[in-house]
Structure formats: C-alpha cells, structure tokens
Amino acid sequence: MKLKKTNDFLIGTASATGAYLLWGILPVYWKSIICVPSDQIIAHRVIWCFLFLVLVLIFAGRFRGFLHELREIMARPKQLAGLFTASLIISINWYLYIWAVNNGRIVETSLGYYINPLVSVLLGIVFLQEKLSFWQKVALLLALVGVLNMAVSFGAVPWVSLALAVTFGMYGLFKKIVNLDAISGLTIETMIITPFALAYLIYAYQSGTLIFSFGFSPVTILTMGAGVVTAAPLLLFAAGVNRLPLYAVGFLQYFSPTISLLLGIFLYKESFTTVHLVSFSLIWAALIVFSLATTRSFIKPASVSTPKSRSF
C-alpha cells in the first residue's frame, strides 16, 4: 500500500509538473504562428481541440459515456446555460492570452496568472459566500498593493493581467457550478463554440483573409496542432490532480507564470522595470502567504479536494 501511494505521488507529480511546464512554454508556440491573426488562431484552437478530445474519448472507450452525459446535460437547461457561459468566457480568455503573447505582453500575461488564484478567492467570497482566514486576507491586500503600484506608477491599469485573471476566475466559478470532469467539460465547451469558430473561418475564407491551407506547410501543421497543445496539458493535469493532495498542486501551479515571465524577459526582451519588480515582489509575497495559509487549513482537517483545471 505504501509503495502504491509513493508511486501515485511520483506519477502525479510528474504529470502535474508536465502540464504546468507545457502551459508555461505555450508563448513559444503561439509566437511560432504569429503570422496568423489571433482571431483565426482561436477559431482553429477551438475546432482542433474539440476533434482531438473526441478522438481521446473514443480511444479511451469513454465516448458512449460522454454521449450519455451530454444527453443528460441537454435535459438540464440551467447546467447547459452554465456550460455555454463557461464556453464563452474561456474563448475570451484564450483570445486575450494569444493576442497578448503575440503583441509583446507576455510579462503581463504572467502577472495575470499569478493573481488568478487570488481573484478566484474573491469570486468565491462574492458568489459562494466562502470565508477567508486572517492570513488569506493579508495575501489579498499585498496583491492589491502590487497591482495598484503598477497602476499608479505607469498611469494605467494593467488591464490585460486583470482581464486574464478575471475571465479565468469566472471560468473556474462556472466550472465549479456545472461540476463536470475536466475532459468531458472541455469537450462540450469546445463543441458549443465550434459552429461559431467554423462560421468565422468560412467568413475569413470568403473575404480572402484566411491564412490556412490543407497541406503540409509548417504554419498549417502548427495551426492544427493548437488543439493538441490545448488538450495535452489538460490530460496530464487530470492524471496529476487525481494522485496529489491540494497543497502539492497549489505550489506547482506557479511554475507556468514563472516560466512565461522568464521567457518574456530573457527570450523576447520585454520590458521589466523596477516598478514591475516591486509589484511582482508584492504579489509573490502574497502568493507565499496565501499558499502557506491554504496549506495549513488543508492539512489541519486532513481532507482532500481537487482543484479546477487551468487553461491558456
């Protein structure tokens, strides 16, 4: 039994780490198809992700179960409305992320995903009447000071960071309300948006602006691969969180924005001033306080829960 737990922990850590590493280096992928407009990338991402997930469900022997689950959801208007809303929100999040990466704002995207856990906490307070400990309140205050420092120093609110954090936080909220497993949920969400994505690509083709051809050019292959790079980290994440306690995943989740931040500064030479350093330091301090407070409250009752998955 002990050996099994050890193996589960190692497999879970490797899977979750792999997911966060892939999410962290996603900017490199989107930069590789910078010649494709962001709106077309998001349309392709939705379509190819849906098709890839259908194939995964078929090969995993879960497609019949998925269809049964889909029929049940179709009979529940409130759950269906929740999924439709989640689909719309995650599409906005994906578009903002790709647009920001391809417009030299990777540092801002990393800030958004650093503050995302704290935004999710605020949403939990507002919509789910969740309570905060003293140290969690301290963490939120530190993060707020960090964001305000950037807003005052630069004379502008870091809207990309806040928009990414809020949209992904709202997405997580609706996912919690709908309560579906990660793979089935994302399959239905992309299925809902796929007709709109197809319609947009048809419009782009008819207007002569479509950058895509059914051939073997690198751009075409990478554009189609957008679906795989969306779903693959999710599959690794799902394999990881089922084997790991919440506090372990909580610490691992900061790999992604850290990798993106380093890529933005050192690979793509984005600006990182003293103001950025002060704000990021305050937010890093907030995350340390928040993670330790959350870990303590998790370990004390010795209960296990599973966090919601992330998406870029």
Please tell me about this protein's structure.
This protein has one domain. Helix content is 79%, strand content 0%. The chain contains 13 helices and no strands.
SSE inventory with pairings:
Elements (H helix, E strand, L loop, with lengths): L1 H31 L5 H22 L3 H12 L2 H25 L4 H23 L5 H21 L4 H20 L3 H25 L11 H7 L1 H16 L4 H7 L2 H13 L6 H26 L13
Helix pairs in contact: 1-10, 1-12, 2-4, 2-8, 2-10, 4-7, 4-8, 5-7, 5-12, 5-13, 6-13, 11-13
Q: End-to-end span in angstroms?
A: 36 Å
Estimate percent helicity: over 70%
Look at the helices and sheets and give the structural class.
mainly alpha
Number of domains: 1
Query: What low-confidence regions span 5 or more consecutive residues with pLDDT below 50?
Result: 301-307
Mean pLDDT: 88
Number of strands: 0
Strand content: under 5%
Count helical runs: 13
Shape annotation: globular
Radius of gyration: 20 Å
Query: What is the makeup of the main sheet?
Result: none
From N to C, what is the helix and strand string? HHHHHHHHHHHHH
